[in-house]
Design brief:
With 307 residues, the chain is α/β, with parallel strands linked by helices. The protein has helices spanning 18-31, 59-70, 91-100, 115-122, 138-149, 170-181, 212-216, 239-246, 276-279, 286-305, and strands spanning 9-10, 48-53, 74-79, 105-110, 127-132, 159-163, 185-189, 206-209, 221-224, 261-263. Helix 1 packs across helix 5 (138-149) and helix 5 crosses helix 6.
Length: 307
C-alpha cells in the first residue's frame, strides 16, 4: 500500500520532500515505453479509479485513463457537464455519492483552489489532484521534471525560465515548489499584470523579471505557459501584442544555453505564446512531456494503490 504522504493520495508538490519526489521520478522512468517490453500489467487489476473533472481537459484526463488501464485498473471518467453537478447538485452530495460507490482512488480537477483538499477531508478515498484553480497541478510538475532529467543528469543548478501567465498558473506553482527543492534557479517572467511580486517568496531561488530576454539569457530550460483567458478578469492583451513581448521565437533561442530545451504544458496557442518554428524544432520536448505524462501518472497510481 502507499506510504507516507501518498496514503491519502497526492494533493500537491509543496508537502513532498526530495526523497518522495525522486521515488516517483525513478519509478516513472521504468514505465517509459523505451524502458519496458510490456505496455500493460495487471498490477492494479480489480481497482476502480474515477476521473472527476469539473473543468474541461483532454490531455490530463486521457493520460490518467491510459495510465490506469496500463496498470490493469478500471477507469471511469465523469465530467461536470455530464454529471448531476450541472443539474444543481452540491459538491458535497456529489462526493457522498461517489464515496458510496467505493472507488479505490479519485482523480479530481476543479476550478476552485483547494477543492481536492476539501474532498480529502470528507472521504477516506485517496485523492489525486489533477489541477485545482490557480493552486497546484502536481503530476504536471512531476512529468516536467522527468522530461528534464531525460536530458540532464540533475536538476541541481539548472536555470529554468518560466514565462507567461504566472498569476493564474497552477503549473508554474507546482514547478516552483518542485524545482526549488532540487536547487534549480527559477526565473519568472511575464507582464506586470500577470506576475505578482509576492511569487518571489513562494519558494527559494526565485527571481522575477518583465523582460523576456533577461529571463532566457543563459537558461537551460524555457518553460512557456498558456495565457489563461478564462481566468483573467482584467482586459487581456491582444494576441499580437502579447506575442511581440512574451512570445517565444527563434531569435530568442540564441540567448539560451546551446542545448536548452523548450517546454509547454499544452494546449499550445501558436502565435500567442510560442511560434510554430520553436514548437516544432529540435529544441522542443513538448511531445516528450505528453509521453512522460502517462509514465508519471502510472508511477503515482502505483505508489498510491499498489501492493
Amino acid at each position: 500500500m502507499a506510504d507516507g504522504l501518498f496514503k491519502s493520495g497526492l494533493l500537491g508538490i509543496e508537502p513532498l520532500d526530495r526523497v518522495e519526489i525522486e521515488g516517483i521520478l525513478d519509478r516513472a522512468k521504468r514505465f517509459q515505453p523505451r524502458q519496458t517490453d510490456s505496455k500493460k500489467s495487471d498490477q492494479l487489476r480489480g481497482r476502480m479509479i474515477v476521473n472527476l473533472f469539473f473543468e474541461a481537459s483532454t490531455r490530463t484526463r486521457t493520460s490518467f485513463e491510459i495510465a490506469a488501464k496500463r496498470l490493469g485498473a478500471d477507469a471511469i471518467s465523469i465530467t461536470a457537464s455530464a454529471s448531476s453537478v450541472s443539474k444543481g447538485e452540491s459538491l458535497v452530495d456529489t462526493l457522498n455519492t461517489l464515496g458510496a460507490m467505493h472507488p479505490d482512488a479519485i482523480v479530481m480537477r476543479h476550478a476552485a483552489s483547494g477543492a481536492p483538499h476539501f474532498l480529502a477531508r470528507y472521504l477516506p478515498t485517496p485523492i489525486i489532484n489533477a489541477g485545482d484553480g490557480t493552486h497546484e497541478h502536481p503530476t504536471q510538475a512531476l512529468l516536467d521534471a522527468r522530461t528534464i532529467l531525460d536530458r540532464r543528469p540533475t536538476l541541481e543548478g539548472l536555470r529554468v525560465a518560466i514565462i507567461g501567465d504566472i498569476a493564474h498558473s497552477r503549473v508554474a506553482r507546482s514547478n516552483m515548489y518542485l524545482l526549488s527543492k532540487f536547487g534549480a534557479q527559477i526565473v519568472l517572467c511575464g507582464p506586470a499584470s500577470l506576475l505578482p511580486p509576492e511569487l518571489a517568496q513562494l519558494a527559494p531561488n526565485i527571481t522575477l523579471t518583465h523582460q523576456m530576454e533577461d529571463a532566457i539569457r543563459g537558461a537551460d530550460v524555457i518553460m512557456m505557459l498558456r495565457v489563461q483567458l478564462e481566468r483573467q478578469h482584467e482586459a487581456a492583451f491582444s494576441a499580437n501584442e502579447y506575442f511581440q513581448f512574451y512570445g517565444l521565437r527563434l531569435e530568442h533561442m540564441g540567448l539560451a544555453k546551446p542545448d536548452a530545451i523548450v517546454m509547454h504544458p499544452g494546449p499550445i496557442n501558436r502565435g500567442r505564446e510560442i511560434s510554430s518554428e520553436v514548437a516544432d524544432s529540435q529544441r522542443s520536448v513538448i511531445l516528450n512531456q505528453v509521453e512522460n505524462g502517462i509514465a508519471v501518472r502510472m508511477a503515482v497510481l502505483e505508489r498510491i494503490l499498489g501492493n
